[in-house]
Specification:
By secondary structure, the chain is mainly β. It is about 5% helix and about 60% strand.
């Protein structure tokens, strides 16, 4: 199902913007986001794509009037989408989103492409993240009504996939009950319908997820317990549907947390079994997160130093009988911080903050009959370890204009189990950030980092220097260097230099350098990018 070409509509909207705002300035908003890259070759990296110039462009208009609202989004990919983005974004100019909405008091209705989620998204979430190239909005209708203590919502629609729509249809119902000041209950069902001819009498074109979540909050303490049951679903491997093999799935998530002034601790346990779920069965396992129904991020620390993201973990909810078999994951994460008072702080009289995080993830302990594609798992038993991350972070403010951050990370990454090959990798990373305020509104940041490992590509070193002028203009230069690689040709400097200008809601950026191949992750969800080299210009305009 393919939306119409909208080149003329795009031109009309662009040239008609000034008139529209003159008439309805108080009711309109809009944005234009554009990223353009000219890819080049150098002595270390060859452009892996067919096009030297590529750009991703997003033009959006929003209209608000009393209880009504509407929006429209146009997208353009010239000559192709940026490297690492799905080839389904194949339009020079195309209509991507449109929505009409009405909301009054306790009732709301949406028609068009909408975003929503149930609870934290473990059974259903539709959202857009342009950096990940992810947009799985639903084209259909979404309704909700708030009673005194109950909120009911429901939706139905087909999922966006580039400029096309899914073959399968999604439907969902959710009820959120406020039982008391401390206790809430969340119940939901998400159903996928996709036509499929099968000789298996037990096969159904419907697959359902049933969710139940209890939430408790009291003062500084909070917790939740969620369980999801996935009904019979056909096994899918390498794009092939094995309708003779049907498997159920489930998810269990338990969270506890406590916070007060200067202190907080949060812990999560999660178990996933055969919980990968797509609007179209054939989309199972694609590398672009296309047509994915539920939101299952990796529950690990999201670090912001370059070397920590070389061995990054992705959640493993899928069932597969390839490479020895896997059926899901089980593990936990705990996060804590403590802010020392000025009277009890150490090293400095100004401020010290200590943060500790630990996560560890395993495959489910199970036995596999690979020939007949059958398995049996143990519910709370841990199998082969996939990943662990133990890190300590100390932030110190030494003077009124100088502060530092010291970060140590110990990682274990089972590359063979997660990616299919590469062995097991143990790393230690040390990073030091220094921030110096110059004058009243300028800041100099210097970062140095190092990764030690005897495994895989061996040692790395990295550095960054950045200067911000008046919180409007910044320049930076950075480098990640794999100096320990056993292969001389792979001892590459991944250098980058750039500048950014901000004024109000407007932002321009220019960057030249090399992209290290691997995963780019945001919020625990990742996309793969190849090695590349090029000049990139970015622009964000808000109206």
């Amino acid at each position: 199902m393919k939306p119409m070409k909208v080149s003329h509509l795009f031109i009309i909207l662009c040239f008609g913007t000034q008139f529209a705002f003159a008439q309805f300035i108080e009711n309109f908003s809009g944005s234009l986001e554009s990223t353009m890259t000219y890819y080049t070759d150098d002595d270390k990296i060859i452009n892996p794509g067919d096009s030297d110039f590529r750009s991703n462009n997003y033009l959006r208009f929003n209209y608000f009037k009393n209880e009504f609202s509407a929006n429209i989004q146009l997208e353009s990919y010239i000559e192709e989408p940026l490297l690492g983005y799905s080839p389904v974004f194949d339009e020079k100019i195309g209509l991507s989103l449109f929505l009409l909405a009405y909301k009054k008091k306790n009732f709301s209705v949406e028609a068009g492409y909408f975003f929503d989620q149930f609870s934290e998204g473990l059974s259903f979430r539709s959202w857009e993240d342009r950096q990940l190239g992810l947009n799985n909005a639903l084209l259909g209708a979404n309704l909700s009504y708030q009673f005194k203590t109950i909120r009911l919502s429901g939706f139905a629609g087909k999922q966006k996939n580039g400029f096309d729509l899914s073959d399968g249809t999604l439907m969902g119902l959710n009820a959120y009950l406020n039982l008391s000041k401390k206790i809430d209950l969340d119940l939901g069902i998400v159903s996928r319908y996709q036509e499929y001819e099968s000789d298996n009498p037990d096969f159904s074109e419907f697959t359902n997820l049933y969710s139940l979540k209890g939430i408790y909050t009291s003062g500084s303490f909070y917790s939740h317990l969620e369980y999801i049951h996935k009904g019979n679903d056909a096994l899918v491997e390498l794009g092939n549907v094995f309708d003779s093999r049907l498997f159920t799935g489930n998810a269990l998530s338990f969270n506890l947390g406590y916070f007060k002034s200067g202190f907080g601790i949060d812990g999560t346990f999660r178990r996933l079994e055969n919980m990968a779920f797509y609007t179209d069965r054939e989309a199972y396992g694609n590398i672009y997160n296309e047509l994915i129904v539920n939101y299952i991020p990796a529950l690990t620390k999201q670090h912001n130093v370059g070397l920590s993201n070389i061995y990054v973990y992705q959640s493993q909810p899928q069932l597969s009988f390839l490479s020895g078999g896997k059926s899901g994951e089980i593990g936990q994460q705990i996060d804590a911080y403590y802010k020392f008072s000025k009277e009890n702080t150490f090293f400095t009289k100004y401020q010290t903050v200590l943060a500790v995080n630990y996560s560890s993830w395993f495959g489910l302990k199970a036995s596999y009959d690979l020939e007949n594609r059958r398995y049996s798992s143990e519910f709370l038993a841990y199998g082969e370890q996939y990943y662990s991350d133990l890190n300590f972070e100390v932030k110190n403010q030494w003077l009124t204009n100088w502060k530092t951050r010291l970060l140590w990370i110990n990682q274990y990454y089972n590359k063979t189990a997660v990616e299919g090959n590469g062995g097991k990798v143990n790393t230690n990373i040390l990073a030091l950030d220094s921030y110096l305020t110059v004058g009243s509104r300028n800041e100099l940041r210097i970062q140095a980092e190092h990764l030690w490992t005897e495994d895989d590509t061996k040692n790395w070193a990295g550095g960054l220097i950045e200067y911000n002028f008046l919180q409007k203009f910044s320049v930076y230069a950075s480098d990640l260097y794999n100096y320990g690689n056993d292969i001389n040709s792979e001892r590459i400097h991944y250098y980058n230099a750039g500048a950014t200008y901000r004024k109000g809601k407007t932002r321009f950026s220019l960057n030249y350098g090399r992209q290290r191949g691997g995963l780019i992750c945001i919020g625990g969800v990742c996309r793969f990018v190849p090695k590349s080299n090029g000049l990139t210009f970015g622009m964000n305009l808000y109206l």
